[in-house]
Amino acid sequence: MISKRQEAPYLVFMLALSIYAVVAMALSTFAELPRETRTVLEYADIAVCILFLLDFLVTLARSQKREQLGSVQRLDPPPHA
């Protein structure tokens, strides 16, 4: 098992990726960027999304309570019939 001290740099890295994703999305939405820059940002966004997906899958595989992950109550429960 990974200790919390060893996990901290990884979590900081994931936080930095999250911040990068938000900034890149804001730039591509609100700034007039050259076509080449937009292309690079799109490829970087795809790479970040793949990293987030891999992180989720690894976390799911290591989870000891996998069956409970799908049964967590949603924020907006469906209306009663």
SSE topology:
Elements: H1 4-30, H2 35-62, H3 66-69
What would you say about this model in short?
73% of the residues lie in helices and 0% in strands. The protein is mainly alpha-helical and 81 residues long.
Cα radius of gyration in angstroms: 18 Å
Which stretches of 5+ consecutive residues score pLDDT under 50? none
Count of individual beta strands: 0
Along the chain, the helix and strand elements come as: HHH
Number of folding domains?
A: 1
What fraction, in percent, of the residue positions are helical?
over 70%
Detailed description of the structure:
With 81 residues, the protein is an all-alpha fold. It has one domain (4-63). The chain is built from 3 helices and no strands. The protein has helices at residues 4-30, 35-62, 66-69. Helix 1 (4-30) packs antiparallel against helix 2 (35-62). The longest helix has 28 residues, at 35-62. The radius of gyration is 18 Å and the shape is extended.
Features:
extended, 73% helix, mainly alpha, 3 helices, 81 residues, single chain, 0% strand
